[in-house]
Every structure is written in C-alpha cells, then in structure tokens.
Amino acid sequence: MAVFTSSAFAMRRNLILEALRDAGAVSPETAKALEETGLVNPEMFAEYTQQLVDMGVIRSTADGRYYAD
Fold first, then answer.
1. Are 26 and 67 in contact (CB under 8 A)?
2. Three-state secondary structure string covering the chain
3. How far apart are CA 59 and CA 62, in angstroms?
4. Within 13 Å of residue 38, how many CA atoms lie on the same side as its CB?
5. Confidence class for position 17, pLDDT limits 50, 70, 90
C-alpha cells in the first residue's frame, strides 16, 4: 500500500466526504458509486478511498458504492 502525505490525504478525504454528502450518500440505501458524485478522477485515488473505508471514515456496500457515515 502506498504511503500518502498527511496533507494530500486530508485534502482528498475532505473532497470525498463532501462529494458523498452533497450527493446524499449518507446511508447504505442512498450510497453512490464515486463516479455518481461528480468527484474528479475517482478511480485514480482508489487507495485513498480504501484507506478511508479501512479507517471507518466512509463506508462501502457489497456492490461497491460508498456513503458518509
């Protein structure tokens, strides 16, 4: 797993959280694929996203959608 600088990680975390909340993805029922949120280059930052899931900052569904908890 890549190691990210704390400032870059914090900035990406905030972008992902804001995108999920703005898209209304706040529960398993309203979860969205990152592509649906308007987030720029969501697939480029897959490791950031996985770290956020691992840390419990965001949640993922079995079908690969995400939501802010």
1. yes
2. CCCCCHHHHHHHHHHHHHHHHHCCCCCHHHCECHHHHCCCCHHHHHHHHHHHHHHCCEEECCCCCEEEC
3. 10
4. 10
5. very high
Rounded (10°) CA dihedral 21, 55, 53, 7: 70
pLDDT tier, 5 (very low <50, low <70, confident <90, very high otherwise): low
Closest Cα partner for 28 from 69, 18, 38, 48? 69
Q: Residue ranges per domain, the chain?
A: 26-69
CB 44, CB 2: distance < 8 Å: no
Q: Using the predicted structure, report yes or no on whether residue 4 has a pLDDT greater than 60.
A: no
